[in-house]
Amino acid sequence: MNVRLEIDFYMKNSTIFISLIVAMLSCSLWDKNAPKELETIKIDVDKSTKTKDISTWIDTSYYEIVPLETKPNCLIGEIKKIWVRGNKILVYDEMAKGIYVFNRDGSYHGCIIAVGNGPGQYPLPLNDVVVTDSHVYIFPPVSGKIFAYDFEGKFEKTIDLNGTWGDTFFTWDEEVFNLIASWSNSKRGAFQLHVLDTKNNCVNSIWPVNEDDLKNRRGWGLDNYYSLYNKRALVLVSTVDTIFEVSANKVFVPRYYADIRKKKLPRKIACGNAYEALHYATNNDCIKGIDKIEETSRYLFLMLGDSEKDYIVTYDKKKKEIESISNFFTIHAWGDIQCSLGQSSVIENDTLISWIPANICMRWKENNFDSCNFNNKRFEDAYKKAINSIHTEEDNPVIFLIKFEK
Asked: What's the Cα-to-Cα distance from 214 to each of 35, 136, 208, 347, rounded to whole Å?
């Protein structure tokens, strides 16, 4: 049995289930609003394979394997997001509702956990957390503000939403904040993107949501609405098959259309009530649409799935064609370890950041890595050392960093 770098079906938590029920399944905006030159990605899942060796896609000479230090004051309950910023690794813990900060070697540095209603505290629930090169921005929607902290946990300021609202947000320069909404309304009206310019104290609301979308609650309630790369964001919003582009100069346009050829949810169903569409898709083994998107300098990775399995669609932006459709990736150069792009990974700046839960590490230790044949002795030693540093299932996870070739 191959060692799994990541198990996507690991602990499918209630947050994911609820978000699927609440949001799901919209009618595409592409057919009535998108320009004719929209780039089409033709997807036929019947041509998928179980695994794809990505050894030639990555720099196999580079890797970082970092066990995060386990202490009573930094026990991670459930990782929701993770970032690597300079010499720091930052982890958003869904259970703690805050950020743990570790040094690049895995040693514990500090935390940003300030739940409450007092000065410098943020109320629950939280919609999203964004980490820049120097700050952590926390978004509790009930407050109508975004809270900013430095990496030492010091509260610095709040940013007023000025009547806007969003499910998630991002920023390139910490002056302009882009808030993405699905079927929700705000004091400024129902729009799918609000551009909040704090420097010039103005708001630009873009792409209005029509009444049917509001009534049927179309759009997404998933963890990943967008992928940032090279001063642009690729955004999933109120659609199951159209990918929008938001650029730093405030352009918001449809960019890609995912033409799902097989097992796609019928348009008539997708354009109706979201709850009914989700029920139909589950019972009829249909692909609902794009669940998640990631981008590197060379590739787009689209995650989609039916009731039986998940698919990773790898699209080569240079060749303008699909490179592979598979259920997970294999890295043959590193002993055929397997990785995927799902709940336990994220891509940032051509780096795949994955986390391996302690219980999975313990399982691998029990198997003594008998199924692995490592060709790279240096990698094997580093890999086994990191996994063997885990002693109980309650320990913090191991972080794995892989670089894609450009």
From this structure: 24, 31, 11, 32
